[in-house]
Specification:
Elements: H1 6-20, E1 32-36, H2 47-55, E2 63-64, H3 84-97, E3 103-108, H4 110-121, E4 128-134, E5 141-146, E6 162-163, H5 166-171, E7 179-185, E8 198-199, E9 202-203, E10 212-216, H6 222-225, H7 228-234
Parallel strand pairs: 1-2, 1-3, 3-4, 4-7, 5-6, 7-10
Antiparallel strand pairs: 8-9
Helix pairs in contact: 1-3, 2-7, 3-4
Length: 236
């Protein structure tokens, strides 16, 4: 397991110190939740999930929805640099405000792989109770080709989603939390854009060593918006 970086540890220490002296606000102790949207999407894409979590007793302060990336240029975004900071900051803040000291992380599409990278790069897996990847390209996008070919844009490049990119190869086999789930579809117009959803005969949204994978007939975006109840059930 990778260690927490000194800079991250310092930030967490300050936030945790403040949290320790805050009065208890809830009778039931729950994990804080981080919801990471997909490429060029927005925090509002999680409205259904947020409403479901609020109905189950979480407060707004316990539901973090970082905004990341260039919202008007999908091909400009990857998993390295400015895209990382908002997600890492949300993970750190969630750990600090969590009543349990642990968090649940749900990511959609590129947000799932982006969140996974922050967890592994900064040694946060021990704080993650449940990780849910929705329509993520954990094994790469066939539409991006196989690295180092067809990498004309950032999203498919070294830090992107081409099959066997250095980024994805480094992520492979890592454990992102105590429990890991995926939500996928064979009708996903992004993951299955070429007519094939698999990489190495396995659905690209499936995560290695996952506890379970849930399959629906929704499209890429419906997997996020129409599975709010399942998402909330998985992190309970």
């Amino acid at each position: 397991m990778r260690t927490v970086t000194p800079k991250l540890l310092a930030s967490m220490s300050v936030i945790l110190a403040v949290a320790l002296f805050a009065p208890a606000a809830h009778a039931v102790c729950r994990d804080a939740v981080v919801l990471v949207h997909g490429n060029t999407s927005s925090p509002a894409s999680w409205d259904n999930t947020r409403n479901e979590l609020l109905a189950r007793g979480l407060s707004d302060a316990e539901i973090l929805r970082p905004a990341w990336g260039n919202g008007s240029c999908a091909a400009c975004n990857d998993h390295n640099g400015s895209e990382e900071t908002p997600v890492l900051d949300a993970l750190v803040e969630a750990i600090a405000v969590s009543c349990t000291g642990r968090i649940d992380v749900i990511g959609h599409s590129m947000g799932a792989t982006l969140a996974a990278k922050q967890i592994m790069d900064h040694g946060l897996a021990e704080y993650v109770d449940t990780f849910v990847g929705i329509a993520g390209a954990f094994r790469g996008l066939r539409s991006c080709g196989t690295y180092p070919y067809n990498v004309a844009n950032s999203t498919c490049g070294y830090w992107g989603l081409s099959i066997s990119s250095p980024f994805l190869d480094a992520l492979y086999g890592e454990r992102f939390g105590s429990r890991v789930y995926s939500i996928k579809s064979w009708y996903d117009q992004v993951i299955c854009a070429t007519g094939y959803c698999t990489v190495g005969w396995i659905h690209s949204s499936s995560i290695w060593d996952e506890d379970a994978s849930h399959t629906y007939t929704y499209g890429h975006f419906g997997l996020q918006t129409h599975t709010a109840t399942l998402q909330a059930n998985l992190i309970e």
